[in-house]
Amino acid sequence: MSNRSPLAALLASVLVVLTGTQACAAVPSDDRSAPAERRVVQRADADSVIAISIDGMSVAAVRKLGREQLPNLYRFMRQGASTMNARTEREMTVTLPNHTGMVTGRRIDASAGGHGVTWNDNRLTPETVQEAAGSDVSSVFRVVDASGGSTALFAAKTKFTLWQRSWPDAIDVTTIDEDNSELVDRFIADLGTDRDFRFLHLSPPDVAGHAHGWMSKPYLKAVRQADALVGRVVKAVNSDPVRKARTTILLTSDHGGHGPDHSNARLLDDYRIVFMARGAAAGRGVDLYAINPTYKDPGTKRTTYGLRRPPVRNGMIANLALDLLDLPAVEGSEFDVDQDLRLTAPPA
To answer: Global pTM?
Structure first.
C-alpha cells in the first residue's frame, strides 16, 4: 500500500497534462521492488501479451455492423478464439471498476474480497486500489514485474492514473492520451521495446454513447473507429514476423450500453460483452465455450459469482495473460485463478 502523502499524490497526478480535449503523459518507473511473487520465468506460450479494452462497445453494435463494417474485429474472431456472450463484473457496469477487475482478477465488492474501486472519476481519495480494498491488492502488472518482466499502460482516460499510483513500481510506462489515434501511434512506437505485457484502453464508443446514445449513428461510427484502431495495432504486431509469432492479443470491453447510459448492471445490453484472443497461443475460429467445458454460456442471464461452471468474464484478462506468459495467478484473485481457460481446442 502506498504511504505517499496527499501532496505527493497530487504532484503525481499533475504529470498528466491536459491540452484542450487531449491529455498526454508518460510516467516511467524504475523501481523493481515488488513483493513475494518473484520467480524464474519458465517457457511461455507467448513471449508478449497485449490486452485491449474497447470502452463501451456493445455486442448489439458488433452484430449490427457485421463483418463488412467491422473487418478487423470479425477477422479477430475468425483467426482466434472468442465469444460474444462474456460478462462484466456483476456489481457494476462502469469503466474504472470493471477495468480494475481486468488487471486484478477480482470482483468489485471489497467486503467479499474484491478490489473496492466503486468510483468512476479522477478522485484522489481513496488514493490507491489498496486503500479502496482496505488491504493489499496485487495485479497482473506486479506479477509480471516480479518475474523480471516489463509492462506498460496506454489509456484514453485520465482516471487510469489510479493504477500508476497503486502499482508505481510495476508499471514501467504509463501513457494517457485522450486522442485515441495519437494513443495508438504511441502504443505502436512502444512495440519496439521488449515488454511482456501491455494494456491498451480505447474510448471512442463510450464517448459517443454518452454524447449521442448507444446504437445512435455517431455511436456506431465510433465502434467502426475502434475497429480501425484495433486493425492498426494488429497490423503493427504482424509487421514483424518474430513479434507476430510471439505475441497473443486479448480483447474485451468494460460494459455495453443502452440508450444514453450503461450503468444498469441488471440490463443485458450493459453486462454482455465480447471476449476475444488471437495470435501465438490462440486457436483459429473457435468458440470459447465450445472448447472450455468448465465454463458455461450464460445465455441471457446476468449470473452470480462462485458458480461451478462460470461464464467467461472480462476479469479473466489478468490471469489468462499470466498463464500465457507462464506466470502464476494474481495473488488474491478469483477469476480464472486456476488458469484453466483454454484458447485452443484440446487434442482429439
So the answer is: 0.89
